[in-house]
Design brief:
This protein is α/β, with parallel strands linked by helices. 37% of the residues lie in helices and 21% in strands. It has three domains: 146 residues, Alpha-D-Glucose-1,6-Bisphosphate, Chain A, domain 3, CATH 3.40.120.10; 208 residues, Alpha-D-Glucose-1,6-Bisphosphate, Chain A, domain 3 (3-Layer(aba) Sandwich); 86 residues, TATA-Binding Protein (2-Layer Sandwich), CATH 3.30.310. It contains 14 helices and 20 strands. Strands 1-5-4-2-3-6 form a six-stranded mixed β-sheet, sandwiched between helices. Strand 7, helix 7 and strand 8 form a beta-alpha-beta unit. The longest helix is centred in the C-terminal third of the chain and has 19 residues.
Length: 456
């Protein structure tokens, strides 16, 4: 007999260890609960990543939805960013994505999206779990069981992206940019290299295969390999996607690994709107120098609520939204974070200005309060990030910034530990609202002690 644990709905998503906690039987029950929560004959778009257990759980979850009379559109393996884009294009009532955790082996997340393409609020996910626990499920008669259709959402997204960047097509083709892209063994490998080539780019791909034994990508080692490849082939840009193509880390033409905040700054200024009444949504713990000179209405979004950036963008009619985890929301194209669009925006700027990507990032430089470095073995770095993220120091909570971790206190003080451009080096960045040198020094010392404790 299987049971539903309230912790499944932690952090606003259905999250559990695959095939031990979240079994196929339980996935079918949760699918039936979601179908019960939705209106009868609702249309749900379903997708997954490349992982084997994601396919298994998606089929089980889909069976539960069909039993409630829900009509399904199956997109098979697809980036989460494309699924969110497709929900509105198809006029679906809901979307479902099953994907792996970025840093915890065996953990799987079931992400549910509403008709606007924004992730369900925590209370909505909790309601689905409560329906499953109650056993008050809708089971339709055999003739009313839902139907599964298959759609080529990749082609629709491909053409929409080409149309969106059509004004940049000529300059990009003339620039003949050389791009190295790490697809993180995700479905973005089915679309991004092709459309980059259509825009005249010479493309070198890494990790573009379907993995038998999936790794956590990107990670410090893979980012260093990407950096070294960019330098070796004299590329104009390196792009490290996550498996969902929602987040990206950029490596510039000199091989400098750029933070997500730096890329958000380049994106934001590339699409600058002169209207001073325009609104931009910013993660609360983003470095203030990213947005301090913007003549815009700034709305801050807290961490912890899935879909928080996208929802705030929608509710405030914002022109852009981003945070320090590498989420980039450009609502004129899609309701969700889209790392492919963010990467294309950087490439379009390179082609338009004729500048090296290093110079573009330098023009949008982010200024830190205090920086320090500490020697740290590259091969141990990802395990350190995982360990600290899942067991943060007392008084802090951690967020994954893709190239590191940010430890945050409730008083908005934070410590960012991330891969420096140099080998075997961790960068320590601290922020303290009062700008007190003494407090900043204490934070740096605290971070050094954290590293020393782990290594010892």
């Amino acid at each position: 007999m299987f049971r539903i644990d309230d912790s499944f709905a932690k952090r606003g998503r259905i999250t559990a260890f695959s095939n031990t906690e979240l079994t196929p039987e339980l996935a079918a029950l949760l699918g039936n609960a979601l179908g019960t929560y939705l209106d009868s004959k609702a249309v749900v778009i379903v997708g997954r990543d490349y992982r084997r257990d994601s396919r298994m759980l998606k089929r089980s979850f889909s069976g539960g939805l069909l039993a409630a009379g829900i009509e399904l559109i199956d997109l098979h393996a697809i980036p989460t960013s494309v699924l969110q884009f497709t929900i509105r294009r198809f006029g679906a009532d809901c979307g479902l994505m099953i994907t792996r955790s970025h840093n915890l082996a065996g953990m799987v997340s079931i992400k549910i999206f509403d008709s606007s393409g924004i992730e369900f609020k925590s209370e909505q996910v909790q309601k689905v779990v409560e329906i499953a626990k109650s056993g008050q499920l809708r089971r339709v008669s055999a003739p009313e069981v839902g139907w599964i259709s298959v759609a080529d959402a990749m082609m629709i997204y491909d053409r929409a992206l080409a149309g969106f960047f059509a004004p940049n097509a000529e300059s990009m083709k003339k620039a003949k940019l050389r791009v190295v892209i790490d697809c993180a063994c995700g479905p973005a490998s089915l679309i991004m290299p092709d459309i980059l080539n259509e825009f005249g780019c010479e493309v070198i791909t890494l990790n573009a295969h379907r993995p038998r034994n999936p790794k956590f990508l990107p990670n410090p080692s893979s980012l260093v390999r990407l950096r070294d490849t960019v330098r070796a082939v004299d590329a104009d840009l390196g792009i490290a996607l996550d498996a969902e193509a929602r987040h990206a880390i950029i490596v510039d033409s000199q091989g400098r690994i750029r933070t997500a905040e730096e890329t958000a700054s380049v994106n934001l200024h590339s699409r600058y709107d002169p209207d001073t009444n325009a609104t931009v949504v910013v993660g609360k713990t983003v470095n203030p120098s990213v947005y301090h000179d913007l003549q815009k209405n700034i709305v801050f979004s807290n961490h912890g609520e899935p879909g928080g950036i996208g929802r705030a963008v929608l509710e405030n009619r914002a022109i852009y939204g981003f945070n320090d985890t590498g989420l980039f929301v450009l609502p004129v194209f899609s309701p969700g974070s889209d790392a492919i669009v963010a990467s294309f925006t950087v490439l379009a700027q390179i082609a338009k200005t004729g500048l090296k990507s290093t110079d573009i990032y330098r023009n949008h430089q982010i200024f830190s309060q205090r920086l320090a470095e500490v020697t740290f073995p590259l091969e141990n770095m990802f395990d350190f990030f995982k360990s600290t993220l899942n067991n943060p120091p007392e008084g802090y909570f951690g967020i994954d910034t893709l190239n590191g971790i940010k430890l945050i206190r409730e008083d908005n003080i934070w410590i960012h530990l991330y891969l420096a451009t140099g080998d075997d080096t961790l960068q320590i960045e601290v922020y303290e609202p009062d700008e007190s040198p003494e407090k900043q020094s204490e934070l740096i010392e605290f971070a050094r002690n954290l590293v020393t404790s782990y290594l010892s």
